[in-house]
Fold:
Amino acid sequence: MKLAIIGAGRTGRGFIARLFTSQAQIYFFDSDRELIEKLRGAGRFAVRYFDGRETHYITGYRAFWTGEPCDALTECECVFVSVGAENTGGAGKWLEPYIRPDAAVIACENAAQPSALFHGALRDRAGSGAIFCTTVSDGALDIAGESVPTLYTDDKVGVAASLSGIEIVPDFSVLMQRKLYTYNAASAIIAYLGAQKGYEAYADAANDPQIESELDRFYVAINAAVCAEYGIETDAQARFAALSKLKFQNRSIADSISRNAASPERKLSPSERIVMPARLISKHGGDTAPLIKTAAAALRYMGAADAARAREILLGICNLTPGEALFEGVMRQYQISR
Structure:
């Protein structure tokens, strides 16, 4: 099988390529010409594991710059797109003229329904994949990451279903909502409260007693809300949340606050990891205080220097309204944390 990876960044190289390199010929496509030249020149790169597993070397791939005609895409039976949620729509538009009509296309992004980030016909035909694997740069090309063995997908993955490492989840949309509400929201709490306290290492912030207290308070509220909203068993959601905390507090995972706090404008949007779970918790009568503190810290992180700018962001980006409990709570917290 010939398999295209659109986006040769950390996830593309360190998770998707690593997962499938023994089963397929890997074709990397990226808009970063310098990165593509490095991949071509090196001929291989290493994936090292936080848990000490033997280093995995990725070889035998081909690499293409998207600024040139990419007819090689017509050879590929599977296409995985991992370019960042904000770039997925544009990547899909670039991709459409090249892909063969029978190719499986899978969007692998942190979004409630990654394939919905595409447009038109591609959105209708594409599948979605859930990334639960942390990967960080470990040199010019090398990657360090978790030894996660599975890419969870919906059932619209076509021939990719035959690949070892693909696990089709019947209730994929619910899984992604739970991931957004639990993993992504907890990540935001650690990242923005950690940045506010001056941390640089992500695990250091996750293990800070005050931040951990906010995290535990959040888990109580979100677990109850998720179970009420989706009919998830209490123990199942509690285990799901506990795994996220275990991951985030693992000091062997060399992650950074800056990586996790990046793109605060997107993460403050109404369909993202702060506002959306806060609304769900509020709907079910839970405690939104940890997410209110996180939103205020995120406002500071993105440079809101005064209350007028904070208010502008809450109105224009978060889609919150004056008088709404979340709006008023964040504004109060913003003033307190000055």
Remarks:
- The chain has a mean pLDDT of 95.
- The CA atoms of residues 82 and 244 lie 22 Å apart.
- The chain has 14 helices and twelve strands.
- The chain has two domains: 2-168, 172-336.
